[in-house]
């Protein structure tokens, strides 16, 4: 008899939809206030999850959602890194 493993779910801060954790990208604010993209999902600090879609990234940028969630100004490079990562995935 096999036990089904529970899949961790997280909510995309832009769309509000629930996804398996592996389908989202985590943006982290460290204690020093530095913001970075956390591809491993294990960096320490305050995190916000964003779905890997161009629409979600653009919505988060337009409505300033990441800045509100992480309580820090988000550099333009973070959005550029997210968009290039999504386009690189072929999604």
Automatic annotation (TrEMBL):
InterPro entries xrefs: YlxR, YlxR-like_sf, YlxR_dom
Pfam families: YlxR
Domain YlxR: 10-82
Protein name: YlxR family protein
Species this chain originates from: Mangrovibacillus cuniculi
